Amino acid sequence: MAQAKIMENTSKLASYxxxxxxxxxxxxxxxNLQETLTDAFANIPVSSFPQVPGGKVIEIDAxxxxxxxxxxxxxxxxxxxxVKNPAAQNSLDWRERYLGVxxxxxxxxxxxxxAETAAAAISASxxxxxxxxxxxxxxxxxxxxxxxxxxxxxxLTVAAVGAAVAGGVAAxxxxxxxxxxxxDKLGEDxxxxxxxxxxxxxxxxxxxxxxYRWAPFVPVAMDSSMLxxxxxxxxxxxxxVPVIERGSPYLKNFIxxxxxxxxxxxxxxxxxxxxxxxxxxxxxxxxxxxxxxVISVRDDELILEAFKKMRDNNIGGLPVVEGPKKKIxxxxxxxxxxxxxxxxxxxxxxxxxxxxxFMNTVASATHDATKAATPITCKLGSNLCTVIDxxxxxxxxxxxxxxxDDDEVVGVITLRDVISCFIYEPPNFFDNHFGFSAQExxxx
Length: 444
Fold this sequence. Notes:
Layout: H1 2-26, H2 31-42, E1 60-61, H3 66-76, E2 80-84, H4 94-97, E3 98-103, H5 104-123, H6 139-142, H7 158-165, H8 179-184, H9 188-194, E4 220-221, H10 226-233, E5 240-244, E6 251-256, H11 257-265, H12 271-277, H13 281-284, E7 297-298, H14 303-313, E8 317-322, E9 327-333, H15 337-342, H16 355-366, E10 377-379, H17 384-394, E11 398-402, E12 409-414, H18 415-421, H19 429-433, H20 435-442
Helix pairs in contact: 3-9, 5-7, 11-17, 11-18
């Protein structure tokens, strides 16, 4: 078992290397400019990076319920939060004090898995045993992905999930009355529902954090270099990096991919930034992902297939395309699942609901066709500065690149790609600055 875990960790670290090596091959920045930038970031201390809003990092206890966790994320308008180990409250070692980082997507994925279990119970004609009456399949059941058999998910039984479905959950409790607003704010009505329903109100964060897109807790010190942070956010696929005071277990800052890209916007006017960002994407080797590597969903496919693709490929969004040339017509993200939870009319025929139907219904519900489904795009001829401005101002994690003469999707640029564009990893940097313990955590 231990040997298998070591092999899995080694495989993950190798995938990070493969990604970054691919980036370096496709980059077109002069090597001397890359070296200058990398050296510059290596000499900028993490302490110089702006603090989180309010100056205090929000944390939650591992014994917090899923419902309360969503409430904290919603009210704080954040997408992820560090998780504390209640058994180590007095420990001065951050390795014992923190279990990981809970991402909003982890909760969504857990709900999806629970929905599969509920769907299995219903499709197997065991709805009555699960406590589900005819015609009472509610918000959770609406997310069913067509499971072929029951599965134990985070310790939940079919009966437990069925009990959550019974009565229609969101539908019968009016949670769908203000779906657009709720979805924009991470589902305020959603958390009101799951605070009252099983299995949400009794399931603890600790039961899902290591199973659903678990983000390892890999902190850097205040006197570490920003190069360390940028490498963790790009090469090593972390969405956020906790910052601690050396010798202290308490968090001083929490740096996200989005915050770094917003920080780049503030670099306008500096020679090094203007020199790079003024170039068209194609001259910089962007997008790093080729057209045949882009994972997309057709507008005539089922919306549940779109969410399956996101889950199976560990990605947060997909371009919606039509026709043989993959003309982009929309965008769906894992956060759009909230619309299924909050709008009863969306799941009245969820097993037959196409991506196009889903987008049209969301646009109608929001009274704004551009709000929920319109993709954020750019052309190959766009310059990097425009892309960075768009990512920062639209608060999105990816922008789709289309061909110059039509709207065919030819690539995607993520926050990770933008950060990778400015740096490379010096020889032995990881071993010298992170060591074995970080390798072990990053491999988890």
